[in-house]
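From the pipeline queue, job 12 of 40. The input is one protein chain; the requested action is below.

Action: predict structure.
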Amino acid sequence: MKSESEGHKNRPKKQIRKISSNKILLKPRSWVNLGYAIANFEKATFFLKNAIPDETVYTVPLKKSGSLVWGVASEIEVISPERIPSDCSSFPRCGGCSYRHVSYQNELKIKKFLLQETLERFLSKNHIQIPEIEILSGNPSGYRNTAQIQLGFAGGKRLAGFYEEFSHSIVNLPEDGCKNLPEEMNSVFADLLKKEKAESKILSLRLEGTKVVPYKKESVTFREKIFIPKPKEIVWEIQAGGFSQVNRYLVAPWLEKIFELVPENQDRILELYCGSGLIAIALQSKAKNWIGYELSLDSVKQAQKNAQRNGIYSCDFKALNLETNRIDSEEALYSSFWIVNPPRAGLSKKVLQTLTEKNPGGFLYSSCNHTTLARDLSLILNGNYRLSNVTLVDFFPRTKHFEVIVKVERI
């Protein structure tokens, strides 16, 4: 029988825990994913926000998991020539942004480096050659069309903003608003904060043109002029609470890049994770027939309405849980080209298995998580396929996130 002290020793420790310590002097050596610079101290590996490789910085450890430690550089002893003054008074405390201490051009170089390194790490064993990475970017300010502001109280005062890094404490928005939000949204947030009831915990808004609407209560209609191959306007509606690409400046360039990469004169295109049908609407001229699958029945109904609203009747959208179910339509599975646009978790095991079994002539993968993208590609790519294009689409400037489009062709 174990003593109480022995039993306590053998209890599993929490994987992640807050720790307190004196300031530690570190010299980060490289950029790593999620907006951090990496450094070593004794037997620990530190992931630092607000640090630049080759600087010397002080940090207080804020979170720990085994030998891995996370922190924010609080004092810079040796300053990199790449460092710039932040244009946001909430940085680096606010968890929303990761790169406001470097120029936007440097941020794009960092993200390209991280994408290249991640792809090489996962694909080196497959001997897959990675083409030169292209970059699509736009205005890094005021780009978001959707935002959720956290509300709270401290010391009897209202707080409104985003969560602090490594915490659920709220960092107040700067007086002039969030740099990533349009003026219209910052103005509405400021007005609502004066009126909002105390029991509310989140303010969710979306921008429709110049009008700001409640994100979870009202549908929105977007209009976009795209040049594929000649100028045309597409219109699509997204139901209340539904997903949309958040960067209002890059929707058209993103669609135009996808159009450029998808081959012409396809008999049928299969799209997985099709959402409300935006890609199908923009690319309808590429194929005689289009079939899309999506988990949400509401999204599927909306996709059908959106296609018809744009005068398209060659698309068929179906509801299916791609995490648990396999596609049972042989007609769909033998489509000549596939497009996949999964959530951050990447392709489900069912989809990965189906893709490798059916071995389509080519496919396009649009991803919001380059790590799961690289993982999935390492499981799919073999001697039968090659990567013909990799494009980094910076949908989320100043943050740790970005989108990637890759095209895969059968050899």
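Job complete. Residues 35 and 272 are 29 Å apart (CA to CA).
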